[in-house]
Amino acid sequence: MLDVIGLGLVVLGIAFFAAGSIGMLRLPDLYSRLHALTKADNLGLGLLCAGLAMIDGDAQNAIKLLLVWLLVLATSASVAFMIAQHALRRVDE
Prior knowledge:
Layout (H helix, E strand, L loop, with lengths): L1 H25 L3 H27 L2 H34 L1
Helix pairs in contact: 1-2, 2-3
């Protein structure tokens, strides 16, 4: 049963990755693209890691996946902020 739930989470995570990629290509400005990409990809990666942890069943690997997800959460938020600040400064010049 956990394998089926895990597979469902993996598929849902891939769907969020696809939605974020489509949002990055279709949205009109940089700020909307950053928002779509960071939010959808972070949620997609979280679902993917949760699904893989359920499929694997090992607690040590689940902790590693959680740490990877937390690292990506922190870095993507920081990088998106830095890109937005740089774009804002370029508009002011």
